[in-house]
């Protein structure tokens, strides 16, 4: 479920970005989305790998927590942001400093915010 929440929020981030620049949301969404979607997958892979490394043999008894702010949320956020930006550069899409800063802030709000709220409510 946390992966689905993250994926929906990354889609929302890309749709809002396209809309705020008066770009066609539906027709160009995939072009904007794919680098961040792959970055999200990278972030999740790193988070799962880090959890198994952190817990070692004890990890067999401990369950990976996709809702955790640390390390999962931070690693997912960094993977989505850095992976997305790197893939945008490779594919010739823009990565102006202002875009990187806005993306970092919005993705942090989305990917870390729901985890913080979830943690506070539980």
From TrEMBL:
Keywords associated with the record: Membrane, Transmembrane, Transmembrane helix
Pfam families in alphabetical order: DUF3054
Protein name: DUF3054 family protein
InterPro entries in alphabetical order: DUF3054 (IPR021414)
Transmembrane segments: 33-56, 68-90, 96-118
